[in-house]
Every structure is written in C-alpha cells, then in structure tokens.
Automatic annotation (TrEMBL):
<dbReference type="InterPro" id="IPR036400">
    <property type="entry name" value="Cyt_B5-like_heme/steroid_sf"/>
</dbReference>
<dbReference type="GO" id="GO:0046872">
    <property type="term" value="F:metal ion binding"/>
</dbReference>
<dbReference type="GO" id="GO:0005737">
    <property type="term" value="C:cytoplasm"/>
</dbReference>
<keyword id="KW-0349">Heme</keyword>
<dbReference type="GO" id="GO:0020037">
    <property type="term" value="F:heme binding"/>
</dbReference>
<keyword id="KW-0479">Metal-binding</keyword>
<keyword id="KW-0408">Iron</keyword>
<comment type="similarity">
    <text>Belongs to the cytochrome b5 family.</text>
</comment>
<dbReference type="Pfam" id="PF00173">
    <property type="entry name" value="Cyt-b5"/>
</dbReference>
<dbReference type="InterPro" id="IPR018506">
    <property type="entry name" value="Cyt_B5_heme-BS"/>
</dbReference>
<dbReference type="InterPro" id="IPR001199">
    <property type="entry name" value="Cyt_B5-like_heme/steroid-bd"/>
</dbReference>
<feature type="region of interest" description="Disordered">
    <location>
        <begin position="1"/>
        <end position="20"/>
    </location>
</feature>
<dbReference type="GO" id="GO:0004128">
    <property type="term" value="F:cytochrome-b5 reductase activity, acting on NAD(P)H"/>
</dbReference>
<protein>
    <recommendedName>
        <fullName>Cytochrome b5 heme-binding domain-containing protein</fullName>
    </recommendedName>
</protein>
<feature type="domain" description="Cytochrome b5 heme-binding">
    <location>
        <begin position="56"/>
        <end position="132"/>
    </location>
</feature>
<dbReference type="InterPro" id="IPR051872">
    <property type="entry name" value="Cytochrome_b5/Flavoprotein_Rdt"/>
</dbReference>
Length: 141
C-alpha cells in the first residue's frame, strides 16, 4: 500500500549533512590536521632545504596550465597562485570536484561552492606566486 504521509511526517527530512557533498576525510586529514602540518612542514612544493619561493612571482596562465594533475596541481584564487597538491587529500569536498579547477583561475568555482571559506588563510603556506595583473597586497600572506 502506498505511503501517503507527507514527506516530512514521521520520517526524517533530509538533513543538511545528507544534502551536502562533503566527504568523510580519512583520520588525520581534518582541517586542523592540515593547519598543524603547514606549520611544521613545507607544503608549497619546494625542496625542504631550498629557499622559500618568491610569493610575488608572476605566473602566466600558460605556466599555471602546466600544473593540472592530481600529483601537481596549482590553482589561482583571487589573484594568488597556490600549489594545491598537498591539500587535495584534506579537502572536505573531496578530490574529484577539485580536478575541474586544476591549472586554472578557480575563483569562480571556489565562490560557487563556498564563498564563506577563507581559502587565503587555509592555503597561505602553499603560495607559489601571483596571477598576471595582480595588484593586491605585497605582504607575505
Ligand atoms: C583553495 C582551495 C580550496 C579550499 C581551501 C577549500 C576548502 C574547503 C572547505 C574548508 C570546505 C568545507 C566547507 C564547510 O565546512 O562547509 C570545502 C568544501 C567543499 N569544497 Fe572546497 N576548497 C577549495 C577549493 C574548492 C574548489 C576549487 C571547488 C570546486 C571546484 C571546491 C568544492 C567544494 C565542495 C563541493 C565542497 C563541499 C561543500 C558542501 O558541503 O556541500 N572547493 N572546501
């Protein structure tokens, strides 16, 4: 016999957790784990004992596009370029969704999914340069 109750009566309405496309990250890969790791380890892709990268180096769109695989992925975000490679496993939205953004200016996609996320802060240790025409702050964040 068909169930004619209204969708919400007696059953659980879909929770926001179910509606979300957040993935369950592996133990040790929470955002807290990421922030802790970036404090003690180099995550911009540079050699452990080499000098820090020049965070204001201008990276052309052509160069950005050469870093578009899961093992070597850079993205542009609000004029800055970040090496996402180490972060992929920590991304609460999963790795697959990020692929579309690899090697590109990902600002529009980023804002589409989570404008409220402070990407600049989360990614600050992975900065490798800036996009052409960037005229923002010249500090080290
Ligand atoms: C700088 C790079 C990025 C960082 C630091 C980042 C960070 C985050 C964080 C912290 C969350 C959890 C949000 C929450 O708790 O509500 C999240 C979720 C998510 N992210 Fe990202 N993200 C980045 C790039 C992207 C890009 C480029 C895309 C799309 C192509 C994307 C798609 C998503 C999706 C689909 C979710 C799940 C949202 C949901 O709850 O439904 N992210 N990301």
């Amino acid at each position: 016999m068909p169930d004619e109750r209204p969708a919400s009566a007696g059953t659980h309405a879909m929770t926001s957790a179910q509606a979300s496309s957040r993935i369950v990250v592996r133990p040790g890969y929470s955002q807290m784990d990421w922030l802790r790791r970036t404090k003690r380890e180099r995550v911009d892709g540079g050699d452990a004992d080499a000098k820090p990268l020049d965070a204001s180096r201008v990276i052309s769109l052509e160069e950005l596009a050469t870093h578009a695989t899961v093992n070597d992925c850079w993205i542009g975000l609000r004029g800055k370029v970040y090496n996402l490679t180490a972060y992929v496993e920590y991304h609460p939205g999963g790795a697959a969704v990020l692929e579309e953004a690899f090697g590109k200016d990902a600002t529009a996609l980023f804002d589409k999914y989570h404008k409220y996320v402070n990407g600049e802060y989360i990614m600050r240790a992975t900065r490798v340069g800036v996009m052409p025409g960037y005229v923002g702050d010249s500090d080290s964040d």
